[in-house]
């Protein structure tokens, strides 16, 4: 069989131009794309029930024997004439009336005495059962039927039946000819099945075990390619010819003397590493990581000081206006005392002011020149350039797309680069994600930090919770209430919820926001997600007399900033928000963090949110309100929340997140908020995202590292190279 995997999809019989266009909408152009289009879930048809055991409203699988002739009749429905086919079929528990519409030809299929596996919803009226147009497969005891039937992501013009049959053409034909790019020794060392077996079983699993083997192999592939991609195309490079920024210790002392506190040992070490990098002509490429509140900003400020004192300029880019404002408010006045000039540049900066800043940044006269600029993505705009670029810093770097970061360093080709991140990344992931960066780790908190007491509560605590809000506000404190943003739910999540409601088995294990332990009836009783807008309204009514405000991601930046400023100034007592406040905001007077629908958040996200309080002298609390029913106490979803009560170390939390949810939160951010790294670029991590056994990821990363060690640009592995470069295409264009 010749390799048709790169053939256009029209090579399959039954796929013409129209269908090809439908497929193209899903990004499926070639036969290979089609076999890589995995089911999103499976119908569990192997779970055969008796009629009497079926659950109302859910799809069930039942084996029934036909007991009557098919009766045909004509009816009028919605103004059209329809033929109706009706017969009865039974199992040990009862008998069911089955109906099909406009499918007269089925009368030759359903003979008296023949047995079928039906799949669909069973309706009960008294002790009578009904099914309407169920799926059916002829059943013989000696020939087992497949237990799992794939459910594919679809688009208009492509039905599940159609995809199944088109994929069947490939599986029955060319699947063995699809080249397996995984080197044979990697495959055998990791006990992975062949690609053709994996593809066959992912689409037509013969058992749960076979499906498990297939998923494991395909997840490994994704991790492996991802690591190869980051290790080759996605690598940021060090330049020679960066400005040498070397200043004396006594000069540095002038900076330290501005600080109202002593640096921690970890901060001193980080600053030493930064200074030593900047003193060389090879550009710095360093990431500063450390838990929320460990004091990264002052290290960034030290780096700015070094650049400026060496006659260079610095830029600090933050992901939100709120954060940029906060940095500017901290840094600009502080540096002013040393005669160092800084400015703030955001989308909200008036045009005239912007022009002035552009000019001052480019001024050839050092006495008129701006020494540093703090800003948002606005720093990436055309007009921004530097007369003497020296240092580029990005804060909370994971919030930026790879391309935004690349753009900033591109503008300033020979600058030193410092990135900061408060998202603790599990070690195994950090090695791959930051493989090209030197890491400075701040693993020590400034002295006197309090532990934020954490509680997990359910809906029944609502009245007490509101009393607690009042109590804290009456004592002069401020309160955050964070809700997941409903409007940000993705198509995928919606489908997932629908699938779960239908009793389907999801492909990935990641989506445990109420996992399978929670019984179906209970799922229905879970309160609607707290839509932030509505919730803010209700809460402000109930908290009559208190100053409640609302901020969410869809607001204009200027509006967001205005509300945040009022909160920072204490004019607002209770701030209801979506996760926009997550990143970096510092309001020392805030002492209570309430997270609604906490089960929707990754642990690392929750940890970030918790880090917003406990920053001042007030005793602080974090309350995680979970919509999980009390009966879900044994579920992983609940265990995750419970872990927050006793764990305060961001790295431990990240490791747990990885173990419980897979690396998805770190690789591609969940829609419910931030916390992920938008670094996966063009990578589709379908299987890998929710893969919970991190040893597979580690093996894949190790295998990738091994290959890159011997063959840095994959020139000895042309097929692998092609796949990896194709995946990283978008990134590649930007990085080079
Ligand atoms: P993050 O690492 O999350 O960005 P910040 O830089 O915002 O943390 O610092 C958090 C708070 O800790 C700030 O109010 C800062 O002034 C304070 N801080 C930083 N370093 C120290 C220190 N060594 N001693 C006392 N307070 C410090
Ligand atoms: Mg910060």
Major sheet details: 9 strands, mixed
User: What is the fold named in CATH at topology level of the domain at 249-279 and 294-421?
Assistant: Rossmann fold
CATH class identity of the domain at 249-279 and 294-421: Alpha Beta
At the fourth CATH level, what is the homologous superfamily of the domain at 249-279 and 294-421? Answer: P-loop containing nucleotide triphosphate hydrolases
Helix content: 25-40%
The SS-based structural class is alpha/beta
Low-confidence stretches: 509-528, 669-681, 730-736
Distance between the termini: 39 Å
Query: How many beta-strand elements?
Result: 25
On the 0 to 100 scale, the average pLDDT is 84
Shape: globular
Level-2 CATH architecture of the domain at 249-279 and 294-421: 3-Layer(aba) Sandwich
What value does the Rg take, in angstroms?
A: 30 Å
Q: Number of helical runs?
A: 25
Strand content: 15-25%
Bound molecules: adenosine-5'-diphosphate, magnesium ion
List the helices and strands and how they pair.
Blueprint (H helix, E strand, L loop, with lengths): L16 H9 L5 H5 L5 E4 L3 E2 L9 E8 L4 E7 L2 E12 L2 E8 L13 E7 L1 E3 L2 E5 L2 E4 L9 E4 L8 H13 L11 H6 L5 H9 L4 H24 L17 H8 L8 H14 L6 E6 L6 H13 L3 E5 L3 H16 L5 E4 L5 H12 L9 E4 L13 E6 L7 H10 L4 E6 L5 H7 L4 E5 L10 E5 L4 H13 L3 E5 L8 H11 L3 E2 L13 H6 L6 H11 L5 E4 L5 H12 L5 E4 L12 E6 L7 H8 L10 E5 L10 H11 L3 H12 L2 H4 L26 H17 L7 H10 L1 H7 L1
Parallel strand pairs: 2-3, 6-9, 12-17, 12-18, 13-15, 13-16, 14-15, 16-17, 19-25, 20-23, 20-24, 22-23, 24-25
Antiparallel strand pairs: 1-11, 1-21, 3-5, 3-7, 4-5, 5-6, 7-10, 8-9
Helix pairs in contact: 5-6, 6-23, 6-24, 7-9, 8-9, 19-21, 20-21
The structure holds adenosine-5'-diphosphate and magnesium ion (MG).
The site of adenosine-5'-diphosphate has 16 residues, from helix 9.
């Amino acid at each position: 069989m010749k390799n048709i995997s790169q053939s256009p999809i029209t090579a399959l019989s039954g796929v013409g131009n129209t269908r090809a266009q439908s497929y193209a909408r899903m990004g499926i152009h070639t036969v290979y794309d089609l076999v890589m289009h995995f089911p999103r879930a499976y119908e569990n048809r192997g779970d055969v029930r008796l009629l009497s055991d079926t659950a109302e409203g859910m799809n069930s699988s039942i084996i029934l024997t036909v007991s009557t002739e098919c009766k045909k009749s004509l009816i009028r429905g919605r103004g059209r004439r329809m033929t109706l086919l009706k017969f009865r079929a039974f199992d040990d528990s009862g008998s069911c009336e089955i109906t099909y519409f406009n499918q007269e030809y089925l009368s030759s299929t359903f003979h008296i005495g023949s047995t079928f596996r039906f799949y669909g919803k069973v309706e009960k009226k008294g002790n009578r059962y009904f099914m309407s147009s169920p799926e059916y497969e002829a059943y013989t005891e000696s020939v087992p039927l497949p237990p799992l039937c794939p459910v594919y992501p679809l688009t208009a013009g492509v039905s599940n039946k159609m995809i199944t049959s088109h994929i069947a053409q490939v599986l029955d034909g060319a699947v063995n000819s699809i080249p397996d790019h995984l080197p044979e020794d990697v495959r055998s060392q990791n006990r992975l099945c062949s690609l053709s077996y994996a593809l066959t079983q992912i689409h037509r699993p013969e058992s749960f075990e076979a499906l498990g083997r297939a998923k494991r192999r395909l997840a490994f592939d994704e991790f492996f390619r991802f690591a190869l991609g980051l290790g080759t195309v996605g690598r940021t490079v060090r330049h020679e010819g960066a400005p040498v920024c070397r200043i004396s210790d006594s000069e540095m002392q002038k900076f330290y003397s501005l600080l109202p506190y002593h640096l921690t040992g970890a901060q001193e070490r980080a600053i030493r590493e930064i200074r030593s990098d900047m003193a060389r002509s090879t550009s710095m490429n360093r990431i500063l990581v450390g838990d929320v509140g460990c004091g990264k900003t002052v290290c960034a400020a030290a780096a700015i000081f070094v650049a400026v004192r060496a006659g260079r300029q610095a830029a600090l880019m933050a992901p939100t206006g709120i954060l940029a404002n906060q940095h500017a408010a901290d840094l600009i006045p502080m540096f002013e005392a040393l005669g160092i000039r800084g400015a703030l540049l955001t989308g909200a900066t008036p045009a005239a002011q912007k022009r002035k800043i552009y000019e001052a940044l480019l001024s050839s006269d050092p006495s008129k020149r701006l020494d540093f600029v703090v800003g948002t993505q606005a720093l990436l705009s055309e007009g921004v350039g530097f007369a003497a670029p020296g240092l580029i810093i990005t804060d909370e770097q994971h919030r930026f797309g790879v391309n935004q970061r690349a753009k900033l360093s591109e503008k300033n080709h020979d600058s030193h680069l410092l990135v900061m991140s408060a998202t603790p990344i599990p070690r195994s992931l950090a090695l791959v994600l930051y493989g090209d960066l030197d890491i400075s780790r701040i693993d020590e908190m400034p002295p006197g930090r309090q532990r934020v007491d954490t509680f997990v509560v359910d809906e029944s605590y609502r009245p007490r919770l509101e009393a607690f809000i009042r109590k804290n506000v009456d004592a002069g404190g401020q309160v955050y209430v964070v809700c997941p943003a409903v409007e940000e739910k993705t198509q995928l999540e919606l489908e997932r919820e629908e699938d779960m409601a239908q009793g389907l088995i999801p492909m990935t294990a990641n989506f445990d926001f109420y996992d399978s332990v929670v019984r179906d009836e209970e799922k229905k009783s879970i309160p609607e997600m707290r839509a932030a807008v509505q919730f803010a309204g209700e809460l402000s009514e109930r908290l009559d007399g208190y100053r409640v405000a609302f901020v969410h991601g869809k607001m204009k930046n200027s509006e967001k900033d205005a509300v945040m400023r009022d909160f920072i100034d204490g004019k607002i007592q209770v701030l209801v928000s979506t996760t926009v406040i997550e990143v970096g905001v510092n309001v020392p007077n805030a002492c209570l963090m309430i997270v609604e629908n906490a089960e929707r958040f990754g642990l690392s996200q929750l940890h970030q949110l918790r880090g917003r309080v406990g920053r001042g002298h007030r005793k602080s609390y974090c309350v995680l309100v979970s919509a999980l029913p009390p009966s879900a106490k044994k579920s992983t979803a609940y265990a995750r929340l419970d872990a927050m009560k006793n764990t305060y170390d961001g790295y431990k939390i990240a490791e747990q997140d990885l173990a419980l949810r897979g690396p998805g939160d770190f690789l591609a951010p969940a829609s419910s908020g931030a916390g992920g790294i938008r670094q996966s670029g063009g990578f589709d991590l379908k299987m890998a995202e929710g893969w919970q056994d991190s040893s597979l990821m580690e093996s894949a990363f190790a295998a990738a590292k091994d290959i890159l060690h011997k063959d840095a640009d994959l020139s000895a592995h042309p097929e692998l190279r092609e796949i990896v470069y194709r995946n990283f295409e978008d990134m590649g264009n930007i990085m080079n």
